[in-house]
Amino acid sequence: MALNCPRCGGDKNRVEHQGKEDGQVIWTVHYCTACCFTWRDTEPALSIDSTKRRKVFQIDPSHPERFGVVIPPVAR
Amino acid sequence: MNKYSDLPIKLASSVRSMRDFLDLLSSHDQCITWPDPVMPEPDIREICVASGQDVPGAPAILFDKIRGYPDKRLVTGVHGSWANLAILLGHPKNTTIKAMFYDIISRWGSEKAQLPRVKPDQAPVHEVRIERDINLYDILPLYRINDFDGGYYIGKANVVSRDPNDPDNFGKQNVGIYRIQPHGPDEFTLMSVPIHDMGRHMQAAEETGKPLKIAVMLGNHPAMAMFAATPIGYDESEYSYASAMMGSPIELTESGNGLDIQAHAEIVIEAEYIHGRREFEGPFGEFPGSYSGVRRAPTFKVTAVSHRKNPIFENIYIGRGWTEHDTLIGLNTSAPIYAQLKKEFPEVVAVNALYQHGLTGIIAVKNRFAGFAKSVALRALSTPHGLMYLKNLIMVDADVDPFDLNQVMWALSVRTRASDIMVLNDMAMIMIDPAAVTPGKGHHLIIDATTHMPPDPIGGDVEIVTPPSGPAIDALAARIRALQGGN
Lengths: 76, 487
Description:
- The complex is a heterodimer of chains A (76) and B (487).
- With 76 residues, chain A is mainly beta.
- Chain A has one helix at residues 45-48, and strands spanning 13-21, 24-32, 38-40.
- Chain A is built from 1 helix and 3 strands; from the N terminus they run βββα.
- Chain B contains 14 helices and 21 strands.
- Chain B is globular and about 80 Å long.
- Chain A: It comes from Immundisolibacter cernigliae.
């Protein structure tokens, strides 16, 4: 089943790391390649459940031009 | 010379590394090891917030039982209380903030930097070297600092970079604290703006196409963490400044990518700027206690990692105050404003800009005549820091300790008239002031809480009580604290 990003809803995610103890997986860290959100599957729902996150913190990465740029790149 | 005792100051000057400092803090009961297993979220955040409730005396907290990160160690709150700063400065841990402020002022201008060199193959930081299959999530016990941060921030790194146009200039080599958000196992964004030295280096690399190599130092000499954020001249070395301010050596070595790094840093991440690349960065809970939004920020590729054996990842809790950030930079925010004001107004006695990086400041001044303090306030607003940060400024007389808020409230209560308030509309303001109507622009407020001087009539038949004060009373207060056994 595709895992959706809690912040943008996208499904372009990858596993960054798994925390293990005695060979058992304790948690998995995911990264959304669309909006760059990082999350661990054991975090409180307020941070990682898109239905419980505050809407103001959801983003739509499909229009990057709507976001400010820190030190704009030099055009070449 | 420490006027209370010369024992702690000798110990403080023997500190060579963060580990040494944690040992020193532990010997004063100012560093604890968290006894229970913790989840990365929300446990670490909650413990850090709880510790921030004890601003005078909170200990550094070492975590070595983080679930899923066996054998990894994290420390927070190293600079999180006045007691820890007092020990760093070589004083008993119950030293007053005012005394520490004057101590820092007295060290100002020292040129006795000691920067001995250690060969890279003998430097503890290079004990373990990783050049392949780098995964920051595997090396560092990373976690989310605030609920809605965009990622797992590294909040207390000392970042070293050289000016791409003058790479051999030691003075122009910058060390600064910039927030870092990992993006994948071996990439991260770094937040800086063009007015920062680091921002200048990134901009220069971008304009010239030259490479920009950096070293991200974690777990640093406690003086570096404290002084790297102090605004000093562009061509002045933060290493020299921190060593001179501490009066003790900071040993340097070379990173694998040619930068001067601390020989005793716990972890050093070597990285290279990726030209033209910007990734979504943020939000991040920042020092005003509000989140800075999502922007697209410059990105770096990790090329190698060096670390000591069994390294300790040092991080900070930052967010709604009071947090370690406020203690870490408060005195070093206050001191430059004082030094700049003092040049033209020797009547300035002390500056307290501890609150949210100086969004509120309190200045004590020997009032000379009616309206004098207001003019001093206006000068404070034209200092480099005051320009963007001093939003609310309270002026008090020299007989009021600006670090004692009870005394400040007394002055506000008895010496302020409504006509003593000045509002300066539509001035420059830092972008992340949560109260701003338009980010980057705002109002400055001056409250003149100094006593009324001729030609201003004082009013009714009023005489202020003059309790005993001065060194004798300060010594008695110190003795009372010492008799409590707080040393």
